[in-house]
Amino acid sequence: MQIVLISGLSGSGKSIALNVLEDAGYYVVDNLPAVLLPQLAAHLHGAGWRRVAVAVDMRSGASIAALPQQVEVLRSTVRDLRFIFLEARDDALIARFSETRRRHPMAVDGYTLEEAIQRERDALASVAELGHRIDTSDLHPNTLRAWVKDFIQMAPAEGMTLMFESFGFKYGIPLDADLVFDVRCLPNPHYDPRLRPLTGRDQPVIDFLQGVPEVGRMSQDIHDFVANWLPAYVRDNRSYLTVAIGCTGGQHRSVYIAEWLAERFRGQVEVIVRHRSTARRAADRAAGIVDAAGDGNGR
Fold it and tell me: Are residues 17 and 80 in the same domain?
């Protein structure tokens, strides 16, 4: 039996994730009190369901405090348990609630929207560490749908799942990053007109960066740091570790190094690679949005 738990901040995209799972054939339960998780799993297993998705969040009130304990109980009985925690920056959440005109579930007793968001963030701090965190602040809904699909299609992971995530500092550091490495000091392919429209996954950019000794040294230093400290994170019972690699626009250097690192860790642990800024550019172009600078995202 596979169970996918969904939790996170209100307005961070939990409904989108649940819809993806329901469309994929999962039995979906929304807003379940955490204390009922074991009973639900036992009931649905007995009823013959093999794929279940459950949303547990602050709408169920104080019972969310029981979620860490219930997750441990499920891990001992469920063959494939996965946990996605969705979050977003305050400004993104405020904009979403303003657009939909919905009330935040914790905006009661005189609390403002900003105060409600902070109360929820504080209450879920311990829960966030249990799952695979996704910062949806700048994600197009279709990108989030694709990332959720990728996550559920992975083979069941034994132990640690290691994610390498490229990003652009011009958009801010992702909230889901556990370790952040800044590679903006490296030579930038953006200033070569032939390379500017490409990404760190394209061979001409790869050839350019492979020809720069500093890129090789930086990549190896990051690899060695992660390799040396990964056992400590495993001993800390961490199921997911996100290593974020940032350059200015998240298009060339960070993408190349994230792919380079992922290739070297495959076979040792379960590895995921994501490119936040290139996904953003693709979504913007699909929506007809063009950078005012022509291609400023690549810097």
Answer: yes
Structure tokens at 128: 């966030």
| Paired residues of 2 in beta bridges | 51, 80
Take residue 1 and report the two structure tokens written for it. Answer: 């039996």
Last residue of one domain, picked from the residues 150, 170, 204: 150
First to last CA, the chain: 45
Residue 113: how many other CB atoms lie within 10 Å: 17
**pTM, full prediction:** 0.86
pLDDT per residue over 182-220, tens digit each?
A: 999 999 999 999 999 999 999 999 999 999 999 999 999
Residues 98, 154: Cα–Cα separation, whole Å: 35
Q: Binding site: residue ranges?
A: 8-15, 57-60
- Residue list, annotated binding site for ATP: 8-15
299 DSSP 8-state letter: -
Q: Which domain holds residue 223?
A: 159-285
Binding residues for GTP, as ranges, are: 57-60
Confirm if 58 and 185 have CB atoms less than 8 A apart. no
Q: Give the number of domains in the chain.
A: 2
Look at residues 118, 150, 182 and tell me which one is the last residue of a structural domain: 150
Alpha-carbon span 256 to 177, nearest angstrom: 18
Query: What does the pLDDT look like over 123-177, one tens digit per residue?
Result: 999 899 888 999 999 899 999 999 999 998 887 767 789 999 999 999 999 999 9
